[in-house]
Amino acid sequence: MTQAPSGDARCRVCAAALAPGSARCPRCGADQRAEACPHCGGVAGVSAHPELRFRCDVCGGPRVPVDGDRAKRSGREVPLLQKARAAASARSVWRAAGIAASALFGFEVFLFAVMLLVLSASVGLFAAGLLTMAPVAAFALWAFRRAKSRGRDIAPALDAAWVSVASDVARQAERPLTAGALASTLRIGEAQAEELLALLEVNDVVRGAVSPAGEFGYAPRLRVGAAPAGEPEAERAAHALAAEEEALADVPLTQRTAHVEPTKR
Questions:
Q1: Are 197 and 188 in contact (CB under 8 A)?
Q2: Rounded distance, CA 166 to CA 180, Å?
Q3: 3-state secondary structure string, 133-149?
Q4: What are phi and psi of 55, to 5 degrees?
Q5: Quick check: pTM over 0.90?
Q6: Each residue of 229-265: pLDDT tens digit?
Q7: Tens of pLDDT along 117-165?
Q8: Domains of the chain listed by start with CATH number
Q9: Cβ(101)–Cβ(138) under 8 Å?
Q10: How is 13-38 classified by DSSP, letter by letter?
């Protein structure tokens, strides 16, 4: 689980002295709340990322941080994070292919213009130019469309991974879990934590409850008898969110509700 710094702890990267409870090293900035990365296996911290939300400081793969020893992961988020990383990598490859094809198309246009200046225009020359440039242009457009398509797979996989981890935290909470507590555990804003809890409630993972102190929160939904056949609650919630994101894939970002964004600390 997460390695919490003690009073006489030192940075795991540069060995600088750390104050009690330090989350990052004041000298090198390394995250001290390190745990094993599901992608590279390295024990490393995470950094906020505008698209992946949090990524591994070693390999750059998407991560879902859990602060402290508040919950043990079920591991259901790992294939979802791997899917998001694969989609991001594929998008980069297709985008690079599209850029290369566009550059080649530009060179062909330049070469064709030079040939028109040197040689007299003819039907054969135009036909040759069309036969050489059209396939390259078509491939460039197709590559950019593939890159856009793979990019749309990133957010649903990430959202499903976050739902899975939020479900693990909620089911292991000793008292009704509040949005503030979940936000602190997952390093996100309270609005995003409330949205995750509401989604878990809709999918019968948690239910609204009031603590002895009168504070409203969410408690794991109790089930009597054997668990029903089918998918586990967290997986059903994850798939529900993935389906929702797939349906909203073509909606402009300005018209969509943000799901999980890292807090700045």
A1: no
A2: 13
A3: HHHHHHHHHHHHHHHHH
A4: -135, 155
A5: no
A6: 444 554 555 555 555 545 544 444 344 444 556 665 4
A7: 887 777 777 888 788 899 999 999 999 999 999 999 999 999 999 999 9
A8: 154-255 (1.10.10)
A9: no
A10: TT--B--TT-SB-TTT--BSS-EE-T
